[in-house]
């Protein structure tokens, strides 16, 4: 079931989204060559605690996962696409890192992700991150009243294909509100004019995951969580929570 949010709920989700943005900024600021991924998690956790927010990631266990998620961020490095666990891995020069974070504040949730490089970047990684950002921007721009979920999916898929990138077919965006994952699903490719109609008060997490190798297949690590490219190519993942409004799409996960 899709819950259309009241304007009061949208303001509450904006506050949760602000906490997510600050937690992501803290994780990114903590990232440097030689730093453990767990330190990024600690930096984000401190922001959530300070804000009085709960993590919807910590302890999360969807049907595909063998164990509850042990952290407040996902940290996915290089050929890891998404859902990486922030463990004791020490960041190396030139790593491409995607950090995903959520926050629940006063009963409402925000969810966002960023991709960035550590140390001296590879030019190809910067291009991949830029393409992923363009895909997200195109998806958000398509999130206007009177259109449909398929218009968002089509916009994202068009950018990814043009960039020569693959995308894991089984993972995409989602409705969000009282819980992190709500209906409707927001696929990262699709046909325009199809799917759930977009109207004022619909809140969505839009999240393209682009794989540089151009293949759509992926594999899951033995940890049961980390998604990886099968060809070893690098991946980027960028996400915002947005609201469809009569004044156009409103990004809720900004600082
Ligand atoms: Mg996310
Ligand atoms: Mg999400």
Automatic annotation (TrEMBL):
It is an enzyme of class 3 (hydrolase). Its cofactor is Co(2+); Zn(2+); Mn(2+); Fe(2+). This is Methionine aminopeptidase. The keyword Protease applies. A divalent metal cation 1 binds at residues 100, 111, 239. Keywords: Aminopeptidase, Hydrolase, Metal-binding, Protease. A divalent metal cation 2 binds at residues 111, 174, 207, 239. It catalyses: Release of N-terminal amino acids, preferentially methionine, from peptides and arylamides. It comes from the Bacteria. Pfam families: Peptidase_M24 (PF00557). GO terms for biological process: proteolysis.
């Amino acid at each position: 079931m899709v819950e259309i949010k009241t304007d009061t709920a949208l303001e509450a989700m904006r506050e949760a989204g602000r906490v997510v943005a600050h937690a992501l900024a803290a994780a990114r600021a903590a990232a440097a060559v030689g730093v453990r991924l767990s330190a990024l998690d600690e930096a984000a956790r401190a922001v959530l605690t300070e804000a009085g927010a709960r993590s919807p990631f910590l302890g999360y266990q969807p049907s595909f996962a063998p164990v509850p998620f042990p952290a407040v961020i996902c940290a996915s490095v290089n050929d890891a696409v998404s859902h990486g666990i922030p463990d004791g891995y020490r960041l190396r020069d030139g790593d491409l890192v995607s950090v995903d974070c959520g926050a629940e504040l006063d009963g409402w949730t925000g969810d966002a992700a960023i991709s960035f490089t550590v140390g001296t970047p590879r030019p190809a990684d910067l291009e991949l991150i830029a393409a992923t950002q363009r895909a997200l921007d195109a998806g958000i721009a398509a999130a206007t009243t009177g259109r449909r979920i398929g218009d968002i999916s089509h916009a994202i898929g068009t950018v990814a294909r043009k960039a020569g990138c693959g995308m894991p077919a089984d993972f995409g965006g989602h409705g969000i509100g009282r819980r992190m994952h709500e209906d409707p699903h927001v696929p990262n490719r699709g046909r325009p004019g199809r799917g759930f109609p977009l109207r004022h008060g619909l809140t969505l997490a839009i999240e393209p995951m682009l794989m540089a190798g151009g293949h759509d297949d992926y594999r899951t690590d033995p940890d049961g969580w980390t998604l990886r490219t099968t060809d070893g190519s690098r991946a980027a993942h960028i996400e915002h929570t947005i609201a469809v409004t009569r004044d156009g799409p409103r990004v809720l996960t900004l600082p």
